[in-house]
Automatic annotation (TrEMBL):
The keyword Transferase does not apply. It comes from the Bacteria. The chain crosses the membrane at residues 43-65, 77-97. It is a multi-pass membrane protein. PANTHER family: 4-AMINO-4-DEOXY-L-ARABINOSE-PHOSPHOUNDECAPRENOL FLIPPASE SUBUNIT ARNF-RELATED, SMR FAMILY PROTON-DEPENDENT DRUG EFFLUX TRANSPORTER SUGE. This is EamA-like transporter family protein. SUPFAM superfamilies: Multidrug resistance efflux transporter EmrE. Keywords: Cell membrane, Membrane, Transmembrane, Transmembrane helix. It is found in: Cell membrane.
Length: 124
């Protein structure tokens, strides 16, 4: 992978993690609806939630960065590398959201990271 492709993939991963965090934080901050689940009221809340819009914006930027990366490198290399976003979300969930992450989940995250490294080294 060239330095440019590495930077593009890293930006894509960061934007994916930011988008997921914004969605989670945005939904957690919505007020609870009384009287059970009402779809119209829920969507009204969603459209007025700034963090959800930030998440959408992060995904739009990620999409554009991803297209640029795809124009420069094979999908068979980029897609496994993009799996590091899963690792970033687990780490961010622990650090930023304070979620509990089990040892098994950490082990799975390490396996994903090792697999990405294997694919990237084998491809080069």
């Amino acid at each position: 992978m060239t330095f440019t492709v590495i930077v593009l993939v890293a930006c894509s991963i960061v934007m994916d993690v930011i988008g997921q965090l914004c969605f989670k934080l945005g939904l957690d901050r919505l007020p609870e609806l009384e009287g059970g689940f009402r779809l119209n009221a829920f969507w009204g809340q969603v459209f007025n939630a700034p963090l959800l819009w930030c998440g959408i914006g992060a995904f739009v930027v990620e999409f554009l960065v991803w297209l640029e990366a795809l124009s420069r490198a094979p999908l068979s290399l980029l897609f496994p590398a993009a799996a590091l976003a899963y690792c970033g979300v687990v780490l961010a969930s622990k650090v930023i959201l304070g979620e509990t992450v089990s040892r098994r989940r950490w082990a799975g995250t390490l396996v994903i990271s090792a697999g990405v490294m294997l694919v990237c080294v084998a491809h080069g």
